[in-house]
Amino acid sequence: MKLSVSARAAAAAGLATAMLLTGGAVADAASSAPSGAAAAPDIPLAGVKAHLSQLQSIATANGGNRAHGRAGYKASLDYLKARLDAAGYTTTVQQFTASGRTGYNLIADWPGGDANQVVMAGSHLDSVSSGPGINDNGSGSSAVLETALAVSRAQYKPTKHLRFAWWGAEELGLVGSRFYVSRLATGDRARISAYLNFDMIGSPNPGYFVYDDDPAIEKTFKDYFTGIGVPTEIETEGDGRSDHAPFKSAGVPVGGLFTGAGRAKTAAQAAKWGGTAGQAFDRCYHSSCDTTANINDTALDRNSDALAYAVWELSE
Question: Signal peptide position in this chain (predicted)?
Fold first, then answer.
């Protein structure tokens, strides 16, 4: 998740000309998933965690981070692109400049579906410079990747067109996603029927938060969690602070999931979800300890399956 407004104000973000793109839950929970979820596959936790391990290894080999403009970010993007290319996606790398460094977005289109109705799922791929960014936001990036690979494994043929995206320089103020949206023609923006955002979905002391932006998307996520017996709350901590914001400003219906950052879990929330009251949802938020040890497997599993459920439900 990006820095606070005050921190962002200090981060200069200049954009340069670039390419224009137009065109399982835990076992007991899975068994009680909502009836519509049968169409969506269970997303294997092992697959999501394998991607997290790769991102951790990349950070370790590149100065301990995967930040914008650093070698670790580009290596992360190359890892995702190779997996998506092998799975049959059409991938596009969008290049921009922010704070004097080159940044990249990765867009992956699944063949087929109605190009006038595009369902997108995305996450930011960059970390802050102070750590490897495994929960923020390797968790969202890896779950989106594994869902995209599940689409390929199923050879899913949705009614709508599916597009997946990984954004650069989110931590500098949503730079990559703003760049993408600003360069879409008005007609192309109108063709995006939903943008789903996943930023921090494996927090170690997790909550289960759903964005309350588009009512239909919100209901889709809530239906999933109701079906597995997990209560949710409306997301407020990061409201407007992640990559859904540029899409929402452009009139695109948006939604997403979040498990909490630096805010402390209340006693009522601990009674509802477990975990530790009075402790941050993620004590390692924007810190060097945001490693593969900083992940709650149950939260990551549930949110990954909810992600896939929404992709299938909204694109069929």
Answer: 1-27
Report the alpha-carbon distance of residue 43 to residue 150 in Å, rounded. Answer: 7
Q: Where would I find the H helices in the chain?
A: 5-9, 27-30, 45-61, 71-86, 140-154, 175-182, 186-190, 215-227, 244-249, 267-273, 297-315
Encoded amino acid at 171, one letter: E
Which pLDDT score is estimated for 34?
52
DSSP state letters, 23-68: ----HHHHTT--GGGGGSPPPPHHHHHHHHHHHHHHHHHTTT--BT
Give the distance from CA 150 to its chain's centroid. 16
Query: Which residues are tagged catalytic?
Result: 170
Show the tokens assigned to 113.
């579906």
* 22 pLDDT above the threshold of 70: no
pLDDT value of residue 1: 78
Instruction: Specify whether the CB–CB gap between 181 and 20 falls below 8 A.
Output: no
The two tokens of residue 37 are: 């979820």
- Type of residue at 154: A
pLDDT of 39: 85
For residue 239, what is the enclosing H or E element? none
Give residue for tokens 């997790």: 206
CB neighbour class for 82 (10 Å; exposed up to 12, middle 13-18, buried from 19) = exposed
Average pLDDT over residues 261-273: 98
In this predicted model, what pLDDT tens digit does every residue of 33-44 receive, in sequence order?
Answer: 454 434 899 999
